[in-house]
Write a structure and sequence with these properties.
- The chain is mostly helical and 278 residues long.
- The protein has one domain (47-277).
- Helices cover 67% and strands 2% of the residues.
- The protein has helices at residues 4-29, 44-64, 66-74, 78-87, 94-108, 115-149, 180-195, 200-216, 222-245, 266-277, and strands at 250-252, 258-260.
- The chain has a two-stranded antiparallel sheet.
Length: 278
């Protein structure tokens, strides 16, 4: 008898966690609650101009800067490259996704509380879920683009060549464009910066260090870093827009501008903690 009760309790916790997570996902896939004239991006004429200018910038960087940058990076002192080799490791998405995923599951597993506490927990789950999606989805998109483009990493062909490609190869040697670490860094900058604007200067320093590190250790060309920056920043903004259209953590104004809802105060969060340990 005593062994059945803990097992039943574990099953109850698992069921509650699954139900709460399923409810959150269902909310995300339901039709948007807000109808905006500009739900995603700029009007098509401006978008077309932006795409054309971005493509031109990529071609210029690939033609004029990529080879010179990676040749210069290879000539840097080894101690300098070792420092950035350590820094670049912090651009891995797992450093963010694992903690965020565990926090999200932990919040979903909490027992029933008072209505106010439940609203606080729901608000926290929305924010943690947004951060997870804003980092994970651009990363997945970047991996898909890498596979399609198949650009060679610096010196893969034995010499510096900014125009060596093998599309759909699927190997690490031909997964240079865009930079995955840069995608993570820029999505972190945008996503965390939207929720906590005061952190933006520190997040910008972090993102710049990751971007520089990818070239210093000759893992990527500068244009690869540019591509990762576009994927990360734009991807995180699109996720925020999607959440806003469902009025989850954000809202959109009449002009389509993004506005964040106020998050739970520390006083509310501490009251939830006291209720949990009571």
């Amino acid at each position: 008898m005593t062994s059945i009760a803990p097992q039943a309790e574990r099953v109850s916790v698992v069921r509650r966690t699954a139900v709460n997570i399923a409810a959150g996902l269902t909310t995300l896939v339901t039709p948007a609650r807000v109808r905006s004239r500009r739900p995603w991006l700029w009007p098509w004429p401006k978008l077309a101009i932006a795409v054309a200018l971005t493509a031109a910038a990529f071609l210029l960087v690939m033609s004029l800067l990529d080879v010179h940058a990676i040749v210069g990076a290879r000539a840097l002192p080894q101690w300098f490259k070792d420092i950035f080799d350590w820094i670049t490791d912090f651009g891995k998405s797992g450093y963010f996704l694992w903690p965020l995923g565990l926090v999200f599951i932990g919040l979903a597993a909490l027992p029933p509380l008072s209505p106010i506490s439940q609203r606080v927990i729901a608000a926290l789950m929305v924010r943690v879920g947004f951060l997870f999606a804003a980092i994970a989805l651009p990363g997945l998109a970047t991996n898909a683009v890498k596979y399609v483009i198949g650009r060679a990493r610096p010196f893969v062909g034995g010499s510096p060549d900014a125009f060596l490609y093998a599309p759909f190869t699927g190997t690490a040697a031909y997964a240079s464009m865009p930079s995955g670490h840069t995608t993570t860094a820029l999505s972190v900058l945008v996503a965390f910066g939207i929720l906590w604007p005061r952190l933006r200067p520190y997040l910008l320093i972090y993102a710049l260090l990751i971007c520089i590190s990818r070239v210093v250790i000759t893992a990527h060309h500068p244009s690869d870093v540019m591509g990762g920056a576009v994927m990360g920043a734009l991807g995180a903004l699109l996720v925020a827009r999607y959440f806003a259209l469902h009025r989850l953590g954000f809202s959109t104004g009449p002009d389509g501008a993004l506005h964040g809802f106020p998050g739970p105060s520390w006083r509310r969060i501490k009251s939830v903690a006291r209720e949990l340990v009571a």
